[in-house]
From TrEMBL:
Pfam families the record matches: Plug
Family indicated by similarity: Belongs to the TonB-dependent receptor family.
Membrane topology annotation: Multi-pass membrane protein
Domain of life: Bacteria
Source species of the chain: Echinicola pacifica
Stated name of the protein: SusC/RagA family TonB-linked outer membrane protein
Signal peptide: 1-26
Key words of the record: Cell outer membrane, Membrane, Signal, Transmembrane, Transmembrane beta strand, Transport
Positions of the TonB-dependent receptor plug domain: 141-257
Xref: InterPro entries: Beta-barrel_TonB_sf, Plug_dom, Plug_dom_sf, TonB-dep_OMP_SusC/RagA, TonB-dep_rcpt-like
GO cellular component: cell outer membrane
Length: 1062
């Protein structure tokens, strides 16, 4: 397309955005006709100016300059412009394309030169922020908002939305669940949002609620469904985090709101973009476990501790050194089992997008395919997706749009975690004896292709688990939204949106007999296991909103929005388990022993409706006030809630918010201050949490199958007072940007008070239940968010730095009980008033008794497994006697760690030089403590499992000084009990991503751009943590934070990519 035609299109788009009432008929600027506004009589001051490139000094043509919707123009071929404004103390806006570039205070000037940097033009959308129902200039924002544009992000080589956003938004702690591809991350906005209700934020994609399936469980241990994995990150235009608001979303906004906007056609030019990359994934360094020559004497010592005589130990086949002994070659190896389950793997990704249109319709169609492999053998994630976004100008007053996406994803998985340790390849790779081999050996020492069975130490063969066990999750999602807007006149409009989500989630697993240790079931010895689950979600969503917008005089800008939302969901789950199919070749649910079969089904429906109002007001573009209100009802609430009001025979919650801002930089008294922006913000809001589960106001029953006999058992008691939790948020903030955006800072101080906490309240034994759910309790998060930006260099070599950080303190203020102790992975966390929620609760240690004399003089005892009291001996751990009764028992437990970080965040660098672009992004967490369950198992020295090399320093001799206790079969005196031995500093600094991009020179006729890049992810992590990876999240529940149960660690990846634009 010729330059003049492109210029015409840009002119038309700008005319629409800037509020021109006239119709663009001309071929160039001089022919643009503008219908004068009735408020034009207030435009008393005329300013003139010029727009130039700061780097070259050349005039810039076609740049939009405007004062609100009352006055607008474009720079001409010499960069010049004239504009009428009401006052020389106001501000004007500079626009390029359909995006705001900057806002400039006039400060009394009638002549002005506007200098635009290359970076400002390249990142034109940076100063516009996506909010619910509108896009606003950043200087209009009254709340605590963090916004991330894909085109600007140093992490744009990421393959998931959570990876794109991690470390890029202050106050948003994004914790990657594990290194399993596609598994996602947990989002914690400004601390912990609940004890037993939903803890994750509301996600809204293109104006429609995006269901995260938090209520859906998995039959594959260690796996969590991640619907965000359906979204190709290259389809994302912007991610915005609303941290202090959420009232507009009523009972869904308590934990913050994440707005994801997908890309659309920005102009009428037909564009084709192709993006592909390939990558290699490198496994992390192995944990230092004992080799065969180290494990053999350990094993011999453990046999003696178990009560075997010397002759029995010598005669053990694993220790017999005679080559002609039966099975010698099966028991005399030095296998690195971690290398047997982990390996180097490869990734590939393909993406193509076509966008364009005409004056009637604009469209964007994309297709993508991703295959991402794990460093765990036979573990990967693949996704195929298609997305279609379109906008239509149906009539002069009627517009319509659609957003449709379909994705199909497959996860090939393994089981992880403490409940599945016997079939977790990662765990087995650590504990399996190194003198055994994955394959069977003949008596002549020849290796057979047949895999070995589980050993006599009752430990499965890791290689057999990897090759023969299957665990797969297959998911489908259709996500479509359709909208229409009718503009009655310049003041009144009506917009409606209807959306549909269809999910199907199918899981299967098969645990074979060969190579896997037998499990003792309730009624039988389990040889093999088969499991299957199907979950179906059908969800409809509608949102209808009436808007009134007006400017009174030239000073008072007012917008009123009134709306109604409705969301209906239907979920069906079917789950079955089958056992002992007779052979590993029969892997279907119907092939097991019928009397052992187990089945589960669930069908649930829930409805949410919300009436809402939003008022946005500003005076002179200097004083801003936003007032929001939502009135929400839900089928999850009881009829006798303590809070709220009754409507239509149901209980509704009321959620208000008030947000205000003062743009000091536009004041006359600031005219001599060299600032682009100085703004103060203050907000108060209430938002609710309806993630309390379905049917808690009813007495419910669940099915039970015992020996092929079906029956019902009581599952829950009715509670007609059950209601939402309420998060009351207070926020004060300041935004400051120096002249030409050389330096910027955004600082917020907040306090979030969560009341009516959903808590477990005890029941009498006669009910047959231990507890029921009820509202009662209060928790507070108090903290600070900080964002910094700095343009360090702006010449040929350009360098911009940024940093985001957050800190919070969590405290439980009220509970309906004294304390709650929760067991997790062999440890415990306690929730009690005056402490953070779910802090680690165990024993304090003070070293190891070096001698019998020291142990005797201490005089401490503990209870043995048989209930008898026994004194500690030389070589035992020294536990602190908290209550002074000389007995180490439950009464001596105390708080020994806190999983909440002192502060967290990320920082980044963006640099350009000629055709090269360099990006780097770091993430960090400081002060969070971690329970290393893996190390607890690997240093317990209580059985025949392999251990870390650190146990070579165990106590063996009278008088030996060490911090490692003696080994003892069965650990009768509890040396490995949950204590501060297993609590570690989980702080880390990670180079999350680094990339170098080179733009090849092209003529621009057909090929507009060719980029080649190389990118590295997780290249290094600085930490004192002794496990594989200090970052993990086994669950989004507060009761499992900071617990390392042995998930796939994150790994280093190196990618080589190509982008072509036509």
């Amino acid at each position: 397309m010729k330059q003049k035609n492109i210029y015409r299109i840009v002119t038309a788009a700008l005319s629409l955005q800037l509020g021109f009432a006239g119709t663009v008929l001309a071929q160039d600027l001089e022919e643009v006709k503008v219908k004068p506004s009735q408020e034009a009589r207030y435009l008393a001051e005329k300013i003139t100016g010029k727009v130039v490139s700061k780097s070259t000094g050349e005039a810039l043509e076609g740049i939009g300059i405007a004062y609100k919707e009352l006055s607008a123009t474009f720079s001409n071929s010499q960069g010049g412009f004239e504009l009428m404004v009401p006052s020389l103390s106001t501000s004007i806006e500079v626009n390029f394309g359909d995006a705001l570039v900057k806002e400039i205070p006039l400060k009394g000037r009638t002549e002005i030169t506007i200098e635009l940097t290359d970076m400002e033009l390249a990142m034109a959308g940076r100063n516009s922020v996506q909010l619910p129902y509108q896009v606003q200039p950043s200087h209009y924002i009254t709340g605590a908002i963090s916004s991330i544009d894909y085109a600007e992000s140093p992490a744009q080589r990421a393959n998931s939305p959570e990876a794109l956003a991690q470390g890029a938004a202050s106050g948003v702690n994004i914790i990657r669940r594990s290194g399993t591809p596609g598994i996602g991350a947990d989002f914690f906005i400004r601390g912990l949002g609940s004890l037993n209700a939903r803890t994750q934020p509301l996600v809204v994609v293109d104006g429609m609620i995006y269901d995260l399936n938090e209520y859906q469980g998995s039959i594959i241990d260690g796996y969590t469904s991640n619907p965000l994995a359906f979204i190709d990150v290259k389809d994302i235009d912007n991610i915005t985090f609303i941290k202090d608001g959420g009232a507009i979303y009523g009972t869904k906004g308590a934990n913050g709101v994440v707005l994801i906007t997908t890309s659309r056609a920005r102009d009428l030019t037909t564009r084709i973009d192709f993006h592909t990359y390939g990558g290699v994934n490198i496994k992390p360094k192995n944990l230092p476990v004992m080799e065969a020559d180290e494990f053999r004497p350990y094993y011999s010592e453990m046999l003696g501790s178990a009560g075997l005589s010397t002759n029995q130990v010598i005669g053990n086949r694993y220790l017999n050194e005679t080559p002609d002994t039966l099975g010698y070659y099966n028991y005399h190896n030095n296998t690195d089992w971690q290398d047997q389950v982990m390996r180097t793997s490869y990734d590939q990704n393909y993406f193509i997008k076509v966008s364009g249109g005409d004056n009637i319709a604009r469209y964007a169609l994309s297709l993508g395919h991703l295959k991402s492999s794990s460093i765990m053998d036979e573990e990967d994630f693949s996704r195929s997706s298609v997305r279609f976004n379109a906008d239509f100008q149906v009539t002069e007053k009627l517009t319509a749009g659609t957003n449709m996406a379909f994705s199909y994803a497959v996860n090939n998985l393994h089981e992880y975690g403490y409940e599945s340790a016997y079939i977790s390849p990662l765990n087995l790779g650590l504990v399996k004896s190194p003198f055994l081999a994955p394959n069977i050996y003949s008596e002549e020492g020849l290796m057979s292709p047949n895999l070995a069975d589980s050993d006599s130490l009752n430990i499965s063969n890791p290689r057999s688990v990897v090759e023969n066990m299957t665990a797969q999750n297959r998911r489908y999602r259709f996500f479509g939204a359709y909208n229409a807007k009718y503009q009655f006149n310049k003041h009144f409009s009506l917009k409606t949106l209807f959306g549909l989500t269809i999910d199907k989630n199918r899981e299967t697993f098969f645990i074979p007999d060969l190579g896997v240790n037998e499990e003792v079931g309730t009624n039988a010895i389990i040889k093999n296991q088969i499991g299957g689950q199907v979950q179906r979600l059908f969800s409809t969503y509608s949102d209808t909103r009436f808007d009134y917008t007006n400017t009174f005089g030239y000073a008072h800008n007012f917008n009123l929005g009134l709306g109604f939302r409705y969301n209906k969901n239907r979920l069906q789950e079917d789950r079955g388990y089958s056992y002992n199919s007779g052979t590993d070749d029969l892997v279907t649910l119907g092939s097991g022993v019928i009397t052992l079969n187990d089945a589960y089904a669930n069908a649930g429906n829930w409805v949410w409706m919300s009436y809402y109002a939003a008022i946005n007001y500003n005076y002179l573009n200097k004083y801003f006030l936003d007032v929001n209100m939502a009135v929400d009802g839900s089928s999850r609430f009881g009829k006798d809630t303590a809070d709220g009001m009754s409507l239509f025979g149901h209980r509704f919650g009321l959620f208000p918010s008030v947000q205000a801002a003062w743009l000091l930089s536009s004041e006359d008294f600031m005219s001599g201050v060299n600032l682009d922006l100085l703004k103060l913000r203050l907000s108060y809001s209430q938002a609710g949490n309806d993630g309390i589960g379905n049917y808690r106001y009813l007495q419910t029953y669940s099915g039970s199958n015992v020996l092929a006999s079906q029956g019902l058992v009581r599952a829950d008691l009715a509670n007609e007072q059950i209601q939402w939790e309420t998060n009351t948020k207070l926020n004060a903030g300041i935004d400051l940007t120096t002249a030409n955006k050389v330096f910027g800072i955004s600082l917020d101080i907040y306090q979030n008070t969560i009341s009516d906490l959903l808590t477990l309240q005890p029941l009498q034994a006669a009910t047959g239940l231990n507890y029921y759910m009820a509202n009662g309790g209060e928790m507070v998060n108090t903290g600070i968010d900080l964002g910094l930006t700095a343009r360090v260099l702006d010449g040929d070599f350009k360098l911009t730095l940024g940093a985001q950080a957050g800190t919070y303190t969590n405290e439980v203020k009220q509970l309906p009980y004294d304390q709650r102790i929760t067991s997790v992975a062999g440890g415990e966390v306690i929730t009690t008033v005056g402490e953070s929620a779910a802090v680690f609760y165990g024993y304090e240690t003070e070293g190891v008794y070096s001698s019998s004399e020291e142990a005797g003089s201490a005089g401490l005892s503990t209870y043995l497994p048989d209930g008898s009291l026994a004194p500690f001996q030389a070589g035992d751990m020294i536990f602190k006697d908290q209550n002074g009764d000389k007995i180490i028992d439950d009464e001596d437990r105390t708080v020994i760690g806190n999983p909440n970080p002192d502060f967290y965040g990320g920082f980044n660098a963006h640099a350009t030089y000629k055709r090269f672009t360099f990006d780097a992004a770091f993430t960090f967490s400081v002060g969070n403590e971690v329970y290393n369950y893996v190390r607890q198992q690997m240093e317990s020295m209580s059985g025949y499992e392999n251990q870390l090399q650190s146990v070579r320093n165990r106590w063996r001799n009278e008088g030996q000084q060490t911090d490692m206790p003696q080994l003892a079969y069965g650990d009768p005196r509890g040396n490995s009990r949950f204590s501060d031995r297993w609590i570690e500093d989980g702080s880390y600094l990670r180079l999350k991503t680094i990339s170098i991009n080179y733009a090849l020179p092209v003529d621009g006729n057909i090929i507009k751009r060719i980029d080649i890049y190389v990118s590295g992810q997780n290249l290094f992590t600085l930490t004192k943590y002794l496990g594989y990876d200090p970052e993990f999240s086994y669950t989004s529940s507060v009761f499992g934070q900071g617990v390392d149960v042995g998930l796939t660690p994150q790994f280093t990846s190196v990618l080589l990519g190509l982008k072509i634009g036509l």
